[in-house]
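Holo prediction — cytidine-5'-diphosphate.
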Amino acid sequence: MRNARQPHRTQTYNATVIVTIDGVAASGKSSVASGVARALHVPYVSSGLLYRAAARAALNAGLPLTDEAALTAHLRAHPLRLDARADGNRAYQGDTDLTPHLHTDEVDDAVSAVAALPGVRAWIDDHLRSLPAPFVAEGRDMGTNVFPHATAKFYLTASPRVRAQRRVNERDADIDAIETALRERDRRDARQSQPAPDAHLIDTGPLTLQGVIDLILQRVQAAHA
Ligand SMILES: Nc1ncnc2c1ncn2[C@@H]1O[C@H](COP(=O)(O)OP(=O)(O)O)[C@@H](O)[C@H]1O
Ligand SMILES: Nc1ccn([C@@H]2O[C@H](COP(=O)(O)OP(=O)(O)O)[C@@H](O)[C@H]2O)c(=O)n1
């Protein structure tokens, strides 16, 4: 039997190929997207990092998180930029690298409010669509709204407990508090977090990280055959 990853070594992905990986909070999107992108030799694009950067920018500027006019004006005057590096995306505002300040409890709490503003979403959508394909894009609405024409679409889930357990391993916090915060963010993000009708749904709970990556690579290969 052929190794699941073998075909990708020789395959060339053309400039139209976009793979989307959406899902709920802490379902494994960035780790999986990074692994799939590495196997395909293309960059991955973390849309969530841009939303986190928008929230961080609002907090830094002291803007109310629900003031759409002020926030969109701020983004126009001080644009964000995503550097879709294969070894980990980075988000900048001007020359300032915001990346080290984006995975904090403060940003976790603020980001859904900022992401609910249509003006902010439009600004980020435009930025994402300006990035040159091929790439793997991960977030909430990559397969539904931003790249509806994607080559292959995936939607990751896992139970809140499993996701909280994974976050415990990354952040020094109580598992119950993490699970409560994840459930709350899922609730606030529900509007833009629906799976595309043509997305493959994957429950990552019973799978290893590499198992999820391999499953996606097999399906991308099939979609591209
Ligand atoms: N089967 C799995 N699928 C995806 N991620 C997993 C799996 N098992 C463990 N993880 C871990 O879960 C954590 C959360 O993944 P992450 O990529 O940050 O999720 P997201 O981008 O959805 O927030 C990471 O530390 C990742 O390595
Ligand atoms: N395409 C996207 C990606 C993220 N987001 C928002 O950005 C936040 C952070 O996204 P993320 O992907 O970094 O979050 P995690 O799932 O990694 O915790 C989410 O909670 C959403 O509010 C969004 O609205 N649309």
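READOUT: The radius of gyration is 17 Å.
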